[in-house]
Amino acid sequence: MTLSRLRELPSTLRYLLAAFLMVIAFGYTLGAFFVDHTTQTRPDGIAERFRGTESMGIDPMTMPPKREIQYEKSAAEVLNITHTHVISLALVFLAVGGIFTLASGIPAWLRGFLVLEPFVSILLTFGGMWLLRYHASSWSILIAISGALMTLCLYTMTAISLWQLLRGTRQR
Prior knowledge:
This protein is mainly alpha-helical. The protein has one domain. Helices cover 69% and strands 0% of the residues. It contains five helices and no strands. The longest helix is centred in the first third of the chain and has 29 residues. The chain starts with 10 loop residues before the first helix and ends in a 6-residue tail after the last helix.
């Protein structure tokens, strides 16, 4: 079976896929802003988000007025966060990775890494949340690294795919 490359797709399909990628990137970016808002994108902020402000040795009475108190997440809350994110992100990366596999000029090793790594990072990030919450705060480093890799892969695949979908007219 021969699949078309992104540049070879009919213009309507190219624009549909480009619009989808832009909306996915926008939604993912909003999620990244939320993570930054709630954790300051720091390992200790991630730990505080799941273990609670007081369990991190911070006295809520001494916190600046604009800083939000983080409460310890229950098992039900962690389960809700992990199951919704694992399922939805798997579908996001299936779609984005599927589109990206039609990009041309990408070395096979890089294509394989960018397509498969996010699935590993999904498991590490959200598995790490359980380890962080119920084992040790140091697991926040795993969450930060795997989350950063997942994000890098998403934006790289999206940028390359958008470039090929939107540049020039359909080549024959």
